[in-house]
Design goal:
The complex is a heterodimer of chains A (125) and B (344). Chain A is of the alpha+beta class and 125 residues long. Chain A has helices at 31-37, 84-87, 91-94, 117-124; strands at 9-10, 15-19, 25-29, 40-44, 51-52, 57-63, 67-71, 76-81, 103-107. Chain A contains four helices and nine strands. Chain A starts with 8 loop residues before the first strand and ends with a helix. The mean pLDDT of chain A is 95. Chain B has three domains: 9-51 and 141-224, Gyrase A, domain 2, CATH 3.30.1360.120; 56-138, Aminomethyltransferase beta-barrel domains (Alpha-Beta Plaits); 270-344, Elongation Factor Tu (Ef-tu), domain 3 (Beta Barrel). Chain B is α+β, with helices and mostly antiparallel strands and 344 residues long. Chain B is globular, with a radius of gyration of 20 Å. The chains are: A alpha+beta (125), B alpha+beta (344).
Chain lengths: 125, 344
């Protein structure tokens, strides 16, 4: 059973968006997504300063078997990336909502395109 | 078409394996994770269900000369109890499949072809056998095959069968055939026998501590050692010389494809080479390989080595060892070095 924290927002493509103490929003992939990918062995993150429209490919997570695109869940500008993933991509598996976060974004739109935990949970059934 | 299932298919499902279609078979790709299964084989012991592999028996007065004719190896050089890895070629010297020949006696052999090639090899052998007094029978459906691999594999063999095995030798225990062979580069062996005995052996080895390993780790384990994958690293258009496996050719005997190999040897040819990524990234089959901005080849196999934690791949190249090339991944040219396999 996948863990789906109540306090986060989600996309149907299995990204999560959450608040950040440093301003902006934190973005990562869900527990369900990391489990489907299995061992994440490489994460390609965007550059700080890059701007993305909602739905554009912003990062790639690769397992031994496959590469999986990660889409910008909302439009905005990258203000920070999780550099720990370069050396330790397995953090995405170990703690998808914690130390396995991927980017910090300054959104240029509101969160209305995202779904809540309950809707995301229903989308998995 | 529905998929074939091995004799212990239900055990895979019970163990929670992710199942995939492989060469028409419903096979476990992983039970837990590819990396943890890979490491288990390198550090301890794992057991693979490879019952989809074929078993073709060749017997009769001309069995030895026939097999010498249809493979790259001279069976006169093998003794009872020897196993030999070699290639089966067409007249152009191109690899139809790679196989292991099991020598039970000089009129009694078994071939183990790859799952997807069993039918083709059986037909090819029959086609080539017209002038030989041999009987060829495909018993692939009657046999299970498990590979037990890893530094602790031999201890498990002694524990269960009370016997030991040397590399590329075979022993029989009742109607079970055990050979010092494998596809991981670790110490280990493969166990073949009638389907009725498969579940008891599978469960006993799991109980003794062998971890079940899926086809995902089987692929990364073999790639780290530079072993060929049938249908991927050769697909009917490459010769044994090009595959880099010239050591499987005994030039002192007559075999199908020999003439073409001799002329190719004189002319020169590409060789399947290793590419070790010098930057972070994962290599994948099909990615284009560049030299000085010009595409020269593509990868046949590619992955990330769980042990080296580097991207590794194979490609047919005409470049010296040490040459720096680029591999194009998502519009980025990543630096790689041509190396002599094995990677590990």
């Amino acid at each position: 059973m996948s863990e789906i924290p109540e306090n986060l927002n989600y996309t149907k493509d299995h990204e999560w968006v959450g608040p950040s103490e440093d301003g902006g929003v934190k973005i990562g992939i869900t527990d369900y997504a990391q489990d489907s990918l299995s061992d994440v062995v490489f994460v390609e993150l965007p550059n700080v300063g890059d701007e993305y429209q909602r739905g554009e490919v912003m990062a790639v997570a690769e397992s031994v078997k496959a590469a999986s695109d990660i889409y910008a869940p909302i439009s905005g500008k990258i203000i920070s990336i999780n550099e720990k993933l370069e050396e330790s991509p397995e953090l995405v598996n170990e703690s998808p909502y914690g130390s396995g976060w991927m980017v910090l974004m300054e959104p240029s739109e509101d969160m209305s395109a995202l779904i809540n935990a309950e809707s995301y949970k229903n989308s998995l059934d | 078409m529905s998929l074939f299932q091995t004799c212990i298919h239900d055990s895979h499902v019970k163990l929670g394996a992710k199942m995939v279609d492989f060469a028409g078979w419903h096979m476990p790709i992983q039970y837990t994770s590819i990396v943890s299964e890979h490491n288990a084989v390198r550090e301890r012991a794992g057991i693979f269900d490879v019952s989809h592999m074929g078993q073709i028996f060749i017997s009769g007065k001309d069995a030895s000369s026939f097999l010498s004719f249809v493979t790259t190896w001279d069976m006169n050089r093998l003794y009872d109890g020897d196993c030999r890895y070699c290639h089966i070629l067409n007249e152009e010297g191109q690899i139809i499949d790679d196989t292991i020949v099991y020598t039970f006696g000089n009129e009694d052999y078994m071939l183990v072809p790859n799952a997807s090639m069993v039918g083709k090899i059986f037909d090819w052998l029959n086609l080539q056998s017209v002038n030989f007094e041999v009987s060829i029978s495909n018993k692939s459906e009657d046999f299970f095959c498990f590979a037990v691999q890893g530094p602790q594999a031999l201890r498990l063999l002694r524990q269960y069968f009370n016997l030991s095995i040397s590399p590329f030798k075979l022993v029989k225990s009742g109607n079970i055939i055990i050979s010092g062979t494998g596809y991981t580069g670790e110490k280990g062996y493969e166990i073949m026998g009638p389907l009725s005995e498969s579940l008891e052996i599978w469960e006993s080895f799991l109980e003794m501590g062998a971890l079940p390993i899926g086809l995902g780790a089987r692929d990364t384990l073999r790639l780290e050692k530079g072993y060929l994958l049938s249908g991927t690293d050769f697909n009917g258009t490459q010769t044994t010389l090009e595959s880099g496996y010239s050591w499987v050719i005994d030039w002192n005997h007559n075999f199908i494809g020999k003439e073409k190999l001799i002329s190719q040897k004189e002319k020169g040819h590409k060789v399947l080479s290793g590419i070790l990524l010098e930057e972070r990234g994962v290599l994948r089959p099909g990615l284009p390989v560049y030299l000085d901005g010009v595409q020269v080849s593509e990868l046949t196999s590619g992955s990330l080595s769980p042990i080296l934690k580097r991207g590794i791949g194979l490609s047919y190249l005409d470049l010296p060892i040490g040459t720096m090339v680029n591999v194009l991944i998502r519009n980025k040219q990543l630096k790689g070095r041509v190396i002599q396999t094995p990677f590990l």
